[in-house]
Amino acid sequence: MGDMSVFSSLFSHERLNDVTDVTIALRDAAYQYPDGSSGLTATTVTFEPTHTHTALIGLNGAGKSTLLDLITGTVVPTQGEVQVEAGQQSWNTNTAKDRRDVKRMLPLVRAEHIPPAIEQAQSIETALAHELKRLHVDDTAARAIIERVFSRFDLTQLSRMPVTTLDAEQIHMLTLAVACARNPAVLVADEPTKGLDEISTAHVAQALFHCGKPVIFATHDIDLVRNADNLIDRVLVLDDQRIVFDGPANDACEHYSEVIRAKYASVMRRHQ
């Protein structure tokens, strides 16, 4: 009985997502933290349905994570709005009900945030099986989902293991597999290769960017963005809580380098 109460917290919704091909539109959307600091200044940007991927790059504090939080309904804009559309349907994250739906369609993955039901379960397979059953997925379909996502993220041999036995790469893979089990319209990830070495980064990137879902993600890893195998066709550069460039990967990375050089020159001038 105790295990079932733990499992019940994994997903906040009562069914798998069945919405695809979403358009995400921020219209003068901004977020200000309770202490008055800015997370993101008024921003208008649209993410259209795509089969490739979008990266957000920028220094710490540039606004990347806040933008992802706004997209996924994790936070409510303090100004403007975030609208998600699919066909004739639309959702606005300013309303609680729509926010719940958006979180189901656009799950936000942070590797350091493992759902308690996964972290405390006897095995990662058991946790997913219980949750899919709670979401009214029949046993045959649940088994197919688990096999698919564990295979995609190289977890099949670890399916009967608890989280405590996994290394950093495997935990990153697990958080992505959990999100994919929900059949997201778009997979949204905040630094999906954070803290990994080059080999582990390559493994996670290969699985993530070829998982069959469009990905919107934030990263500091320019090599990850430039790698053509990762199918990243759009990159937004953020600086001082705003988007300062929106375009193809190589041009965006060059612009980002210019931002860093300008900040470095400014620091040097102040110390002369």
UniProtKB/TrEMBL annotation:
PROSITE patterns: ABC_TRANSPORTER_2. SMART domains: AAA (SM00382). It comes from Bifidobacterium gallicum DSM 20093 = LMG 11596. Belongs to the ABC transporter superfamily. GO terms for cellular component: ATP-binding cassette (ABC) transporter complex. SUPFAM superfamilies: P-loop containing nucleoside triphosphate hydrolases. Its EC number is 3.6.3.28. Residues 24-265 form the ABC transporter domain. InterPro entries: AAA+_ATPase, ABC_transporter-like_ATP-bd, ECF_ABC_transporter_ATP-bd, P-loop_NTPase. It is an enzyme of class 3 (hydrolase). One of its GO terms (molecular function) is ATP binding. This is ABC transporter, ATP-binding protein. Keywords: ATP-binding, Hydrolase, Nucleotide-binding, Transport.
